[in-house]
Structure formats: C-alpha cells, structure tokens
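Lab meeting, item 3. Inverse folding demo.
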C-alpha cells in the first residue's frame, strides 16, 4: 500500500501562484487572494485541503502542478481530488469511505446450508433456497467449509476449477493426451488409411 504524503503548510505566508498565497497560524491554514483571506481549515483536515485545492483548480485559479509543488503532495493525488470534486462536488470529500459489506456465509448460514446439503440437496438448490449465489457455496465446498456427500451413480455436485483440472492432466500419462476414450483397452488406435 502506498504511503500517504501529507501536505506541507508553510509557517509564513507563501505565494502559491500570482495572487493566491497560503499561510499557517495557530494550527489553521489560511488561503489568501491578494491580501484578503478567502478560506481556512485546520492543519490536520486533509479532506478540506483536498476539497479547496481541487476547487481552486476547477475554477482555474491553480494548476495541478502548482498544488503539487506548493504543498509537496503527489500530482496523482491532486488529480484524484480534482476528479472527485468534478464528479461529486464538495460533499464528496466528506462522505465516509465505502466498506465491504458483511460476509454472506455467516456461521448461521453455513449451518443451514450444511443441513440442507446433508439432506441430499444440490449446491444450486441450496443456494436458491438460502438466497445466495451458487458460486459462493461452491467456493465454500472447495475450501472445505461445507461438505457435500456424493450420491452413488451421479457426478460430483461441485465442478473442479480450471487449475485443479490442469494439475490433474499434467500428472496423467502423456499430459492427458493418451489413448482416446473410444479406443478399446489393449487395441491400438488405427492411424488411418491402411
């Protein structure tokens, strides 16, 4: 994971570009247009820093390179902030980050699924009954979190993965390219025209 580079705010009022300058006083960062203060935020308020610099760029007062040089932040993070500002506006900087939802296969769901599988139901029917994806249950079976009893005379209920099939083929004689399935054991397959 990339390390977050925090902006560096100068103690004295320092020009960023022509009429726009920035300074820090008592833990507050203040932006000036000429001699007039136009905006301020707390020194540790990264979201507001990103919002205001993106706003200055969007309005044409600054360029990405100006912000990057003045505050010592990567140009890529400034571009990301600008994109967010253009897509979501100022409020986009203050929404909580989206987190992954809770796991679908909780202990209770696993218990219900295992009971249904023990009753002889197939993985797709259990998935439909519980309202979850069949692939999710198949993955749990392959990982050993669920167990499926193979019924006599039927094929496996959970297909193998491509990598599992490749590994099995590589251990077979001739890499899985042995005698055709239609050839009888002990009889050589004809080479044609003879």
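The presenter then showed the designed sequence:
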């Amino acid at each position: 994971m990339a390390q977050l580079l925090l902006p560096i705010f100068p103690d004295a009022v320092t020009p960023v570009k022509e009429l726009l300058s920035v300074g820090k006083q008592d833990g507050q960062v203040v932006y000036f247009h000429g001699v007039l203060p136009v905006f301020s935020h707390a020194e540790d308020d990264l979201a507001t820093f990103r919002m205001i610099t993106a706003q200055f760029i969007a309005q044409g007062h600054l360029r990405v390179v100006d912000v990057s040089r003045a505050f010592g932040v990567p140009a890529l993070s400034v571009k990301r902030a600008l994109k967010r500002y253009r897509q979501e506006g100022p409020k986009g900087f203050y929404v909580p980050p989206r987190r992954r939802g809770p796991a679908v296969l909780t202990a209770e769901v696993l218990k219900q699924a295992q009971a249904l599988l023990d009753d002889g139901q197939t993985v797709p029917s259990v998935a439909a009954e519980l309202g979850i994806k069949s692939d999710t249950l198949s993955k749990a079976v392959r990982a050993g979190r669920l167990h499926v009893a193979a019924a006599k005379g039927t094929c496996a209920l959970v297909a193998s993965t491509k990598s599992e099939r490749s590994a099995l083929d590589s251990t077979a004689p001739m890499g899985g390219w042995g005698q055709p399935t239609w050839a009888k054991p002990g009889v050589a397959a004809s080479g044609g025209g003879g």
